Amino acid sequence: MRLAFLVVAVFALAACAPSSESLAKTPAAGIDECQNYPDQMVIYLNTDAEMESVTTELRADKRVGAIKAETKAQGYERFKVIFKDQPELVKLARVEAIPASVIIGVAHGVDRARFAEELRTKFPTADEVRADACSQEPPDRSPAPTS
């Protein structure tokens, strides 16, 4: 569990790290790295099947300007490239611990925080929905306020 949290936290912080394969080079992705497309959101999911289902559903949403799906195996390969200079971290990581993800380029004018909240409700099995995928700050894991 701790390793899985570490991997998700590291992935969240690395969302903007340069990689050898730009997101824009991925067929049908249409999203550049954070410096070129800062309004990204990301949904982390437990399985590739969940990722495929969420991706299919979001392709029809007008608030989504671009979308890229990444399987657990693809995420693991990207993780190894990003952290190639930290072999001890790469050695600890396992494909099973890496989440599948859906990276969303939000359409102009969309309130990312509100959209993220809607996605959390719509996809309750998602591990995490980040409205600020390009932020260098770790995600806020505090419980939501109750009324």
Strand and helix layout:
Elements: H1 2-14, E1 40-45, H2 48-58, E2 64-70, H3 72-82, H4 87-92, E3 100-106, H5 112-122, E4 128-130
Antiparallel strand pairs: 1-3, 1-4, 2-3
Core attributes:
5 helices, four-stranded antiparallel β-sheet, alpha+beta
Explain what this protein looks like in three dimensions.
The chain is an alpha+beta fold and 147 residues long. The chain has helices at 2-14, 48-58, 72-82, 87-92, 112-122; strands at residues 40-45, 64-70, 100-106, 128-130. A four-stranded antiparallel beta sheet has the order 2-3-1-4.
End-to-end gap: 30 Å
User: What is Rg?
Assistant: 15 Å
Mean pLDDT reading = 77
Low-confidence stretches: 1-10, 12-32, 139-144
Shape: globular
The neighbouring-strand order within the major sheet is 2-3-1-4
Tally the helices: 5
Proportion in β-strands: 15-25%
Characterize the largest beta sheet: strand count, sense, and whether it forms a barrel. Answer: 4 strands, antiparallel
Helix content class: 25-40%
Write down how many β-strands occur, each being a DSSP E stretch of 2 or more residues. Answer: 4
Secondary-structure element series = HEHEHHEHE
Structural class: alpha+beta
Short structural summary:
This protein has 147 residues and is an alpha+beta fold.
